Amino acid sequence: MGSELPNEEQLPLATEPAPSDFCYIALIRHGHYRQLAQAPSALQPFPLTQRGRDQAALAVEPIIDFCHYLQIRPLSVIDSSRMLRGWQTATIIARGLAQQLDQRLWVEETEALAERSVGAVANLTLDQIATVVAEDPRLAPLPPNWKADSHFTLPFQGAESLLKAGERVALHLEKRVAEMLQSGSEKPQLKLIVGHGAAFRHAAFYLGLLPFENIARLSMYHASPIFLRCDRMGRWELVAGDWKIREWSEFVD
After folding, report:
1. For the domain that residue 243 is a member of, what is the CATH number?
2. How many domains are contained in the chain?
3. Chain centroid offset of residue 9 CA
4. What CA–CA distance (Å, rounded) separates 174 from 207?
């Protein structure tokens, strides 16, 4: 599960000073939320369910375990997507960490962490999108399984491909890493990032953490941190937490 800590050979021992030329990122997918059925848009504005709130609360323990292991604290600002489910997840985590670490944390939202946008057809169902395409004489029929095609961009204003969303998120992560490595801190720093599963997986591809063929095979557990390490050479590795192996029915539309 995502709360498992790495083996000792993967990270410096807690009794040794951790090298300052590394920094850490925790990728946290939002918790379970109320959503429209058969609507592929990531711009659904609905809140977490009780299950999602419970998942977010449970994310606190593995973060604290990871910090204790490295003898560090998370940075006080948690980055979150602007979707309500992302902000709620980040806020619950911030409150839980603050209580246990006696540290003030707060959430900053950014559109850089948004999931792939489908643009002008946001929050329509798959059938409604197909109808819109059929009624527009300018458009050809959508390809089969378009929703899972990493390269495909819907022909609507504001739409982007999954790969484009992943590139956007990867750039945000690289920016945060550069800030941490340039901070002059004597200890490695940990940045918590709350966002969306598909954008995170495609970002992991851009960062060299996942081969392209594994993007569709894997998912992320709700509110279960995946801890990444990056060095000054820009080399990334996963050091704790697990990707979720998707069921066949999940990635075959």
Report:
1. 3.40.50.1240
2. 1
3. 26
4. 9
Q: What tens-digit pLDDT sequence spans the chain (253 residues)?
A: 444 455 544 555 444 444 578 999 999 999 999 999 999 878 999 999 999 999 999 999 999 999 999 999 999 999 999 999 999 999 999 999 999 999 999 999 999 999 999 999 999 999 999 999 999 999 999 998 999 999 999 999 999 999 999 999 999 999 999 999 999 888 899 999 999 999 999 999 999 999 999 999 999 999 999 999 999 999 999 999 999 998 755 543 3
The parent domain of residue 174 ranges over: 22-251
Selection from 59, 68, 48, 64 nearest residue 93 by Cα? 59
| Inside any domain, residue 3 | no
* Residue at 1 is within a domain: no
Determine the distance from the C-alpha atom of residue 66 to the mean position of all C-alpha atoms in its chain, rounded to a whole number.
18
Helices (H) and strands (E) in the chain, counts: 8, 8
Q: Do 165 and 117 touch, CB atoms closer than 8 A?
A: yes
Alpha carbon distance 106, 90 (integer Å): 8
Among residues 196, 208, 151, which one has the least CA distance to residue 169? 196
